[in-house]
Amino acid sequence: MDNTMEDKLLGPKKECLMDLKGRVWIESKKLWSVATPAIITRLTSFGILLGMSSALETLCGQAFGAQHYHMMGIYLQRSWLVLFSGATILLPVFIFTSPILRLIGQEEELSAVAGNISIWFIPIMYYFVFTFTMQMYLQAQRKNMIIGWLSCASFVVHLTLSWLFVYKLTLGTLGAMIISTWSMVIGELIYVFGGWCPETWRGFSKHAFDDIWPVVKLSVSSGVMLCLELWYNAVLVLLAGYMKNATIAISAFSICLNITAWEFMIPLGFLSGACVRVANELGSGNAEAAKFAIKVNLSTSLSLGVLFSVLFLVFRHVLSYAFTSSTEVARAVSSLSILLSLSVLLNSVQPVLSGVAIGAGWQSVVAYVNLGCYYIVGIPIGVLLGYVAKLDVKGIWIGMMCGVALQTLVLLWITWKTDWDAQVEKASQRLNRWFLAPSHENDENTCHA
Prior knowledge:
Elements (H helix, E strand, L loop, with lengths): L2 H39 L5 H19 L3 H21 L1 H5 L1 H7 L4 H33 L3 H25 L3 H6 L5 H14 L7 E2 L6 H29 L5 H39 L2 H28 L12 H9 L1 H11 L2 H11 L2 H26 L3 H26 L2 H14 L12 E2 L2
Antiparallel strand pairs: 1-2
Helix pairs in contact: 1-7, 1-11, 1-12, 2-3, 2-6, 2-10, 2-11, 3-6, 3-10, 5-6, 6-9, 7-9, 10-16, 10-17, 11-12, 11-13, 11-14, 11-15, 11-18, 12-14, 12-18, 14-17, 15-17, 16-17
């Protein structure tokens, strides 16, 4: 067969392949434009408030897709009200951390130090109320670079002040805890109030107090969804603390969790990317684009997960020395390297699926999935393998991975079986139910910043 005849036969296939490559490239650019700043900003997290603020990702993302721009500022103000109230409700936990830890059997020295640190977390908690919500508000309207730049600047300020307070002024832990990097919030407020979001921010409005209860319900379900996930690791570390030779066990396990936590910032960035892209496309009524965004996001995150998984296996003997000088702890970390690698691989898929759930507004469903997979399956298996089968930390970690693997499979099944055209209709109903005409924001009840 000559080349001319072959080109004629393969022409449609080549065109289709080129079209697919082009679509993947465009979707990848949209994904990374959201994920990159989000990866930077996820260097810190605060479970409950992060979870509750993710409701804003659903609302603002879908509102932006539907071009209900003026509603985004109202959703932001409603979220401030809900999260500020939630943070205030949480105050007793921080004030009474020491007696709570003593009650569950932790050592006196550990309880005292943790109680002192928790007091200094209170102003940081209120910092998160504003920074999380404004990040998600800006992220939903694709103002991603400003988040990245502000995060980088805040990170530099934080490192500089940490060095000054901890080393130069020798204030130790106290010096580190009083630095809550409010520069990030100040920068975000200046950007929002200064006229750089004219379509979505039209000043403070009395309508922020309307329809609060639906926002509370969505925020609480979002908070439960993410907290059940974030607390999962903390519970497993707590279980490791009751083992014999607990110092080595907790040290090795904590180092591994620290490594996965840093690497986890990348999948969490893809969580934000999936959330924004799915919410935007559902809001605009484009079910096919939402499905395509999910495929690109999953494949990209999984590819990076494979890369990091291999790297952690290759460098398993030296990883721990970034955290400890103890040879015994380093050996313990090295023995956990296969589990570390598998965890990284699983963690490259699960956050993307959680982001899809947030973008679609499935938080309450995923909360039940997390409860069942993590606390009814994962933790009991970890206890059995760790204490009964005498596998110690390895057993606890295997149980953790069983919970994550089951959750990932369930979320994959839900995503696969979802009728995305029906999700478009649900998004439209949600937006229309809470919609206020733009003219309402120009009356005497609006106070412009």
